[in-house]
Amino acid sequence: MKYVVYGENRVMTGDAIAEAVLAYAAALGENGTTDIVEIPTADAEGYGTTAEVLLGPASQIMVEAAPDDELEPEDEDLVNELGRRIAVVGGGRFTDAASSHSDEPEAKRLRTDPPEV
Q: For residues 16 and 74, is the Cβ–Cβ distance under 8 A?
């Protein structure tokens, strides 16, 4: 599980979802555009719900570890859709770079030595 931290708020969601949201936010920021993403999460009683997050150049989000939960939200369709959107805005290099699970050499390099802007 991971938290997507947005301002003073945190949304707990699945690892793959959080990493895809972070990659998409980076791609949108690089291209000066915005979008709204619905992140699957749970409410205070544990019922499934979503949180809408505005992503774009002014968004300051981060992803941090959250306690493991056997009910971790998984949404392969959302992860794939965010990957498609990343490709559309030309930010494919962020897909693996944001993934802490990627063993690809380029992804590791981008995590440890990000490009200078």
A: yes
- Other beta carbons within 10 Å of 83: 15
Residue type at 74 in one-letter notation: E
Sign of CA dihedral 99, 101, 106, 111: positive
Structure tokens, 53: 């997050």
- Give the C-alpha separation, 110 to 98, whole Å: 9
Tokens at residue 95, please?
């897909």
* Site of tokens 């774009």: 56
pLDDT digits (tens, 9 = 90+) for 45-60: 888 899 999 999 988 9
The verdict on pTM exceeding 0.85 is no
Query: Can you tell me the distance from the alpha carbon of 75 to that of 60, in angstroms, rounded to the nearest whole number?
Result: 23
